[in-house]
Amino acid sequence: MSRQYVIRRMLIAIPSLLGISVILFTILAMAPGDPFEELATNPAIPPEVRQALRTKFGLDDPVWQRYLHWLSAMVQGDWGFSFQSRMDVDTLILQRLPVTLIVIGASQILAISVAIPVGVLAAIRPYSVFDQVASTFAMIGFSLPTFFTGLVLILIFSIQLDWLPFVYRADIHATGWAFYWEHLKQSIMPVVVLGLAQAGTLVRFMRSSVLDVIRLDYVTTARSKGIGERKVIVKHVVRNALIPVVTLVFLQLPAVFGGAIVTEQIFRVPGIGSLLIAAILANDTPVVMGVTFVIACLVVLFNLIADILYGWLDPRISFR
Amino acid sequence: MAETLLDIRGLKTWFKTEDGMVRAVDGVDLRIDRGETVGVVGESGCGKTVTARSVLKLIDMPPGRFEAGTILWQGRDLIPLDQDEMNQIRAREIAIIFQEPMTSLNPVYTVGDQIAEVIALHQKLSPKQAMAGAAEMLRLVNIPNPQKRVHDYPHQFSGGMRQRVMIAMALSCQPKLLIADEPTTALDVTIQAQILELMQEMKEKFGMAIMLITHAMGVVAETCQRVTVMYAGKVVEEAPVEALFGDPRHPYTQGLIRSIPRIDRAVSRQARLESIQGTVPSLLNPPPGCRFAARCRFATDVCTQAMPPLKEVAPGHRVACVL
After folding, report:
1. pTM, whole model, 2 decimals?
2. Strands B226-231 and B37-41
3. Considering only CB atoms, which chain B residues are within 8 Å of A318?
């Protein structure tokens, strides 16, 4: 894998991010409402002041002018100012982003580390009891929406058993191990809810992928070499079966971000998902723009990682 | 008499399907002596491949299962052996190459890795020594620039080259028997000749026996000492190669030989190449009697009563026909 390839891919990402930002900006501009809407109903503020504020922030300029203005500021590192929180958008996002990335990252790791072994074991003995049980749970996993499983978990583990907190707190006053323990405890439910929903789909996909590979000629060749069955599966089947699964994992990431927004609402996780919802409700356009743009960047980045992973898994793909 | 390596007796490998039991191999006898080349011929679906894979127990069970018979390898029955015991025999004593070189190698590992895997496993060598052994094997099968080519992936080789790689892999532990399951069917004619020549050369070098499965009678005539003809899961005739071509007894064998295109026969508009009429019967619940009866021009009432057993008509020449 060459460094040139990665650099070239990053250069290609620039026009697509520009395109995404144009679309986002236009849609937000077309949406009704703006940050000063609430001022209209406030009798203490005369219409002239409101108009002056609008002019000051350039809200009455044509869309393309506002976009160019936003873009040039963005390039210089100025992401705008949140009307709601009274702080810079980039500081706001940087405060919230790590929590979201940790929750999503942990849930993906959980999903993958559950789904791959379960999918492989189910495929090795198709229609066995294990396979039936795994398939049933996978079906449940991807049929139930996260807001439902989230509430069920809260009912069981927070209210009935009182083991886990159901509100995620950013201000934990413990230090040392207690600090990490509290964080772990409050992360378990959001991570499990997101991870298991994802694992359901992955199990089904991994199972069918392994079933496709396991009957191929080169697997018979591997068996004819006198290699133990376990090694045949791990070395000759799983690696080949992973190639399409990698596609799925990365294609689903935008959906996972969507799921994270809902899950963050349920557990009150102070991530960018809840920031986005709050910003939309408050018509806080710069924040909405910033958050959606960050998510777009992450999706583009994950696509690049997917392509690099392909090349590592499958030598037939060359980086040109 | 030469030492017997492989002695298959009354082997029945059946497959359970939704429609019933498919009797893919239904009572096959086959003997291979040390250092000899035995051809197994017959048309598609006659059980050649299933017989070959049964020897190494590469049949998926279920749906397949051994219904009856023994597979004696140097006097020891392979059928009751478990996976670990079979893995001591696979590659080390009996190796196999397949019909489709394009799909028989794992696309995500270099050919060197795949050959070295066998060497390291059976000869207890370090990865580095095994890789050197892999390069040496590639040199033996006449792949140019072997030191460099070991690090290439299968997709960087042509079909003929991949079959050479398969042969190199199969021979890397110097097995006593090489099962070649239609090794040239998927290759074009000039490459076929090269691969057969290579197998012959390797045989002289390593002295292994070869079980050559094919439907090309020409290949059989050129390379084999003895031939077993299969039809619909059963052996219909077995004979030394000269006897089989000089004096074929079974109507099916006669038909196979007549359907070889001959360059020394005058071709006229009227004289078309002969073929055997009809198709292979279903192996699902076959009727009693000779399986070939429906296509046989000599068939009588006797033929549909019971399958005639193999009987010796000349030394080493056995045929299953009432004629």
Report:
1. 0.80
2. parallel
3. none
